[in-house]
Design goal:
Protein name: Orn/DAP/Arg decarboxylase 2 N-terminal domain-containing protein
Organism: Pipistrellus nathusii (Nathusius' pipistrelle)
Keywords: Polyamine biosynthesis, Pyridoxal phosphate
Pfam family, one: Orn_Arg_deC_N
InterPro entries: Ala_racemase/Decarboxylase_C, De-COase2_CS, De-COase2_N, De-COase2_pyr-phos_BS, Orn/DAP/Arg_de-COase, Orn_de-COase, PLP-binding_barrel
Shape: elongated
Length: 440
């Protein structure tokens, strides 16, 4: 926990409360895609400094709405880190993680591919001028209308994991190039993907023959080790299994040339395992089972790795209660203006609570109390964590800052109970701004 002192607040009007009408107009405004809407970042300025500046502007106002600051430069630095650590792997960003138009626009400018799971995501990416060849429609269970949309717009690379999906594809997208999604051992991941998707190794031979009989080319295999993978060696076994699928596919006449190693990469510094360790394991597994020079294209579907560190969230304490526990110990309940139905829904998937930064200056080290953090709605389920957290005694109007809030935050927000999603301001440095200016 870190205390931060604030300068005197300004009298700027940027803190006026957002209405539903304002929010809807902003969401649908074509002008929101213009470069003038980006906040230029000074050479020595950080995203946290921008957050604190905005808090200063709001500190004397009655309407202290929640907000996020998104540093688009993080995308460029993480893209460079990914490509350096995994030189054989082409990133296809998982749009579901953060589908902000600015995030997608920056990644398109950087040259990533895209992993889409629906017609809307396909529309978003294609509208940026991204070539269909840079997209994989990676949802194994697709609605027919979405499948037809992909066919009409030339998105050929599709995943599947069942015979029923093959039947749909043969009827509605016969020009598809298919990737067989393989079941993966992901019991050590925070969110297990194989409980819902993936064909067992024993079933793969049958599916490959069925695709051949339907006249559908299978060009490769894919897997997903689960979100928040805790064991990098999950990749080792999955890559070895994919080699067996390649052998099966070639045995029945498919030209197998694409390996998709999915996602599961950490997005926050200090995560266990670290990204660098995971990359070393993946590179070793690729060298063992798919050595260079074999003509195999390798792609991945990172989401959190790119997006998590992009956003910093700031929320305000709108109410407070002190509860006396047995033995005379105090417990504090803080009610925030953002919660489970807004930016923080993803917190229930985290293994441990994320400690916020307290934006308040203390004369000395303050005592800590067990605290429950509630969101603003009338639902008792609306809380940030199942467990209590240790925080100092704060007051109504104080601010809390949560770093690394770019993954699965804004995309999962709702307007439940009439509370609007946190506003987002995007900041960009001069080099990235120049790159964006070259885009149509």
């Amino acid at each position: 926990m870190l205390g931060m002192s604030l300068a005197e607040g300004s009298d700027g009007q940027s803190g006026t409360s957002t209405t539903l009408k304002d929010w809807k107009e902003k969401e649908g405004c074509p002008g929101s895609s213009l470069l003038k809407d980006l906040i230029p970042l000074g050479t020595e300025e950080s995203a946290m400094e921008v957050v604190l500046k905005k808090i200063r502007e709001l500190s004397d106002l009655d309407h202290r709405d929640p907000f996020m600051v998104a540093d688009l430069g993080v995308l460029a630095s993480h893209h460079q880190a990914f490509c350096q650590a995994l030189p054989r792997v082409s990133p296809f960003y998982a749009v579901k993680c953060n589908s902000s138009p600015w995030v997608l626009r920056v990644l398109a400018a950087l040259g990533t591919g895209f992993d889409c799971a629906s017609q809307v995501e396909l529309e978003q990416v294609l509208s940026l001028g991204v070539a269909p060849s840079r997209i994989i429609y990676a949802h194994p269970c697709k609605p027919i209308s979405h499948l037809q949309y992909a066919a009409r717009h030339g998105v050929q690379l599709l995943t599947f994991d069942s015979e029923e999906e093959l039947t749909k594809v043969a009827q509605h997208h016969p020009g598809a190039r298919l990737v067989l999604r393989l079941w993966t051992e992901d019991s050590k991941s925070l969110i297990r993907m194989s409980t819902k998707f993936g064909a067992s190794l024993e079933l793969c031979g049958h599916l490959l023959k069925s695709a051949r009989d339907l006249g559908l080319p299978v060009v490769g295999a894919s897997f997903h080790v689960g979100s928040g993978c805790q064991d990098p060696h999950s990749f080792t076994q999955a890559i070895a299994d994919c080699r067996r699928v390649f052998e099966m596919g070639r045995g029945v006449g498919h030209d197998m040339s694409l390996l998709d190693i999915g996602g599961g990469f950490p997005g926050v510094e200090g995560s266990e395992p670290e990204f660098e360790e995971m990359a070393r394991v993946i590179n070793a597994a690729l060298a063992q089972d798919f050595p260079e020079g074999a003509g195999i294209e390798v792609i991945a579907e990172p989401g959190r790795f790119y997006a998590a560190s992009v956003c910093v969230a700031a929320v305000n304490i709108i109410a407070k209660k002190a509860v006396l526990q047995p033995g005379g110990h105090r417990k504090l309940l803080y009610y925030l203006n953002d919660g489970h139905y807004g930016t923080f829904r993803v917190f229930f998937r985290d293994r441990f609570p994320r400690m916020p930064i307290v934006v308040k200056e203390f004369c000395s080290k303050p005592p800590l109390f067990p605290c429950t953090l509630y969101g603003p709605t009338c639902d008792a389920f609306d809380r940030l964590f199942n467990e209590e957290v240790q925080l100092p005694e704060l007051d109504v109007g104080d601010w809390l800052i949560f770093p690394s809030m770019g993954a699965y935050s804004s995309v999962m927000s709702s307007t439940f109970n009439g509370f609007l999603p946190a506003s987002i301001c995007y900041i960009v440095g001069p080099e990235l701004r120049s790159l964006l200016q070259t885009m149509p």
